[in-house]
Amino acid sequence: MIDSSPAEKHIHRVSNFQDLVSTPFNGEINAICWTRQLTGDFSEIVKKVALSGNITEIEEEELRALQLSEQGQLAREILLNDLEILKAHGASPILNVINHYDRDDTYPFFPTDVYSFHADRSPIPTDTFLCTYYGESSEILPNSQGQKKVLIPEIRDELRKLYHGADEGFESFLSDHFFDLHYQAKPNAHPISLGIGHLWRLAVDHPESEVPPCIHRAPKEKSGQSRLLMIC
Prior knowledge:
α2 crosses α4. This protein has 6 helices and 12 strands. The strands form 3 sheets. The chain has a 7-stranded mixed sheet. By secondary structure, the chain is α+β, with helices and mostly antiparallel strands.
């Protein structure tokens, strides 16, 4: 299930891949979802992959070589098809089994890892695509329900203590260290779960974007349960 709330005004839902990639972002809409109910056993693929470290990238050749049950084969065909259509669109999808991401403890008062609500930035027009097939799913935060952390006075004061250059370089310092991409959820905010099996396209902060970037974060994984995620 996908959460339903007033924040849905930020989301446009479609029923096929072509509409997912061709529908323009506009107004308050900065997330487009190809809503799907997938068949197959994706957990079997997670169990059969040889894991290496916190994040294991599954290469297409390895995926094809896995010995799977009938349900596992159905899941594999969906993954291979998603890889194919995204590549044909010009994207560079990566399929990962994630135990957990590294946490950022460089500045304890301001972590910049993917567990923090953040937006993606690019110097060229692009979008972020992602789909969770198994495990905990990512979340997005309506822009009206988040505040840039660098604009919160007490956080900004702490960042100024880290910065030792001229005042006119402070904004560049924030950008260079990605501080300006992170957000704090407002009280009573309602993040939206992206659910399982749905393929999402999220707006990115780039020079030609006509909408605010989509704020999102990775979930805290359940103990002992990996995630199967495609992202590009």
